[in-house]
Predict the structure.
Amino acid sequence: MTENSDIDQLSRSGLFTPFTHGSLRLRNRFAMAPMTRVKSPGGTPTAEGAAYYRARAAAEVGLIITEGIYIDHPEVGRDTDQETSVPRLSGEARVAGWRTVVDAVHAEGSAILAQIWHTGAHGLTMEPTPDMTAVGPSTIAPGEGSWAMRGLTLDELGDITRAYADAARNAQLAGFDGVEIHGAHGYLLDQFLWHRVNRRTDGYGGSLGANARFPAEVVAAVRAATGPDFTIGFRFSQWKAEDYTATLARNPGELAELLTPLVDAGVDIMHASTRRFWTPAFPDQPGEDGGRGLAGWTKKLTGLPTVTVGSVGLATTMQGDPHPDSDDWADELRRRFDREEFDVVALGRTVLTDPAWLRTAGITTG
Ligand SMILES: Cc1cc2nc3c(=O)[nH]c(=O)nc-3n(C[C@H](O)[C@H](O)[C@H](O)COP(=O)(O)O)c2cc1C
């Protein structure tokens, strides 16, 4: 059971020490997880959006990772009506809108990364629209698997790579400390990483290393566009929004094969997205390794700092069901931090519903 003493220990733990890696400087180890809001008219963030992020920064969240921001590509995802758009990062007005958000967060002493996103075949298959084509790594006919999609051509891969680079460059112009490339949850880059929907035989699929080639090319293009002093995060996950049991890697060796090309391409910080931070990634591994979470394995295998996430401070699942085993999350979080499984912990639904959740929960430097 999470007791007040566990919360006190968390407050006094290393989670309130600063973090520095490359050009990224954080005053503590708490991040706001990226959460889509669909509240940017015409793709431009509003003053309300700036206030929303500022409130979390003002309440001791040391790193803000924005909601997913669409890169500029015709098949990026569903663009809904003016009142309810996903934000973008192209054009002067949008860059200026983001600059307001960035300045507000910086004024509170926190750092901010822009999460850049292409949905690929995801989302479109959930709600297909006649004018949009679901694109992904491979052509998969309806009924042939869970997702139907048209495989992207090499020219299109080049266009998408450039669009990621342009979005990152615009993020830099808006003053962001860096970007987080969204390669998780079944969206485009995750579709390349996932053997189930990546059936390519042209060097962009066929082995774990080849599956990582396109995401790695995106990372390299972002690095080339932004230079050495701009943080590049990469978010990945085993789970997909439609399939919580999906796996990219069945063991640490496979995970290393997938992640190494990304590291070599220039990622600074890895965000291992899990639904529950305490779930062992590979429970069959012997000894202490059997309890290591996905962020812990990622840190061990890549040598990069990692972000962990998933149900911190929550007693229920995404569906509202009680967690059978989340009772001692505060103690568990501190112990995993002390074992150097992760460097930063991201908070999702807690800070979505309560900007000052850290203080509300009693987790504070005082
Ligand atoms: C409303 C909502 C929107 C989300 N949007 C995104 C997103 O845009 N990008 C992303 O990588 N994850 C997204 N997620 C997943 C969160 O970043 C996070 O991984 C998840 O909520 C688990 O953390 P939690 O248990 O602390 O909420 C979203 C989650 C929620 C609840």
